[in-house]
């Protein structure tokens, strides 16, 4: 039992280290990135962790992703940092909002849950691809929906803008990258386990 717990903790630590490296490298690359599309990549280790380690550990990895998002938005200020960090003031005010925690954490925790059940139902490369799509869509749809719901009055986001953002640019790139990587990585990890 102790060996199993130690092994689980080690594997979670490896996934967290991968997430930190992905975050740091993507920040460096995107600072010099010439294209307008800037896909999020941090959800990919969360989806893989969910599929390989289970929904509970996947949810934990999603929580870590959300915490990374909060820290990133608190330290590296952008015009929309306030939607992910309660420590960043909302434009026109001198305070943040606790709704930022919902935006940053809830979708990310669910990224770590849904893919596990999708893949469990279809343990194939196609199942991994569908799990990648669902995990990525969970992040995109929920984050943008929560931003519209809680911060729409500050961002100017309407339901129409929400739909346009979901089906354009970053969303498509994120889905394509996640599907390709996860459908290639998960079957190999499953064989090695």
TrEMBL record:
The keyword Membrane applies. It holds the Pfam family ECF_trnsprt. Keywords: Membrane, Transmembrane, Transmembrane helix. InterPro entries: ECF_trnsprt_substrate-spec. The chain crosses the membrane at residues 9-30, 36-53, 60-84, 96-118, 130-151, 163-186. This is ECF transporter S component.
